[in-house]
Amino acid sequence: MKTMRRVKGYAFVLALILTVGAVLAGCSPEKAGDIQKVRVGEVTRSIFYAPEYVAISKGFFKDQGLDIELTTTFGGDKTMTTLLSGGIDVALVGSETSIYVHQQGSADPVINFAQLTQTDGTFLVSRSKPAGDFDWNTLKGSTFLGQRKGGMPQMAGEYTLKKHGIDPHKDLNLLQNVDFANIPTAFASGTGDYVQLFEPQATMFEKEGKGYVIASFGAESGKLPYTVFMAKKSYIDQNHETIQKFANAVQQAQNWVQKNGSDEITEAIAPFFQDTDKEIIKSVVERYKSQGSFATDGIVDEQEWNHLQDIMQAAGELKQRVDHQTLVDTRFAEQAKQTVKE
């Protein structure tokens, strides 16, 4: 899902793309009559992003006069590079990426304007079934297959481990050298006693008897702006009405997801996951919905923003804290929450 390189992993591309981004800053999306085209890049294709697919499949974006061109940009660094260079108008990615760009310096900052998920989306999976109630201390001395350093999954994972008195770099044999896409395969082939997995891999492993979900990093690490729609400030300034319509459609989808059950949500998003069994999709939707992972509105509040930075700071990935108002614009989500009631 959100594969991130370390902060300095952005440096080699930012020097090139910030200049290009400045040149393209004045570009607006294509228009066709009353329809406004918006190019959206999602960091990965995931059931975790169910409200996004609901907004498309139920026609909520279309009802707002928006034509969404959705592409999967595979990784936080690639998503941000594509956004800054003008390849997409809006990115769906972790809020930490906007902070990484800010830390590198940018005349055209990336602004978070509509939150989609409000918890981490990973789960702790054990190779063997625990005997009795799970005790976090049983992880000590084990081989733990984690996510990539610098990304929110790994940072939320480390935050949770420390919360339970475990130093991930001293108490575990922590493996972070496996590419995101290969983590499930590595665990299935015998690497690690425990693994931190996104869905649907966690549920699939359970059904196949390859592992057991024993804890949720989302439930443990608390609410934070985990996945957010963001755009360059210049784009927002020049496309204020479009951003408001976008936020309205997101809010309508969030309302719909809250009102409907897993069966209805599964039917709405299944076309985006044609290679995944519907029962798996339904199980994943139920798991995410039950732990409150889907945000009920798009507002990135200051408390969540500060909690995100607490987690980044604990992981050693934050050079300096960034004020909420510097990289977050809540006007659009606040208006959408007030006006969109369906």
What are the key terms here?
disordered N terminus; 16 helices; D-Maltodextrin-Binding Protein, domain 2; alpha/beta; 6-stranded mixed beta sheet
Tell me what you see in this structure.
The chain has 16 helices and eleven strands. The chain has 342 residues and is an alpha/beta fold. The chain folds into two domains: 229 residues, Periplasmic binding protein-like II (D-Maltodextrin-Binding Protein, domain 2, 3-Layer(aba) Sandwich), CATH 3.40.190.10; 100 residues, Periplasmic binding protein-like II (D-Maltodextrin-Binding Protein, domain 2).
Tell me the CATH topology of the largest domain.
D-Maltodextrin-Binding Protein, domain 2
Largest sheet: 6 strands, mixed
Helices, by number, come to 16
- Low-pLDDT runs of 5+ residues are 1-32
CATH homologous superfamily (4th level) name of the largest domain: Periplasmic binding protein-like II
Order of helices and strands: HEEHHEHEHEEEHEHEHEHEHHHHHHH
Strand content: 15-25%
Structural class call reads alpha/beta
* Average residue pLDDT: 91
Any idea what the radius of gyration is? 19 Å
- The shape, in one word, is globular
CATH class of the largest domain: Alpha Beta
Would you identify the CATH architecture of the largest domain? 3-Layer(aba) Sandwich
Got a strand count?
A: 11
Q: Percent helix among the residues?
A: 40-55%
Amino- and carboxy-terminal Cα gap: 30 Å
Report the oligomer: single chain
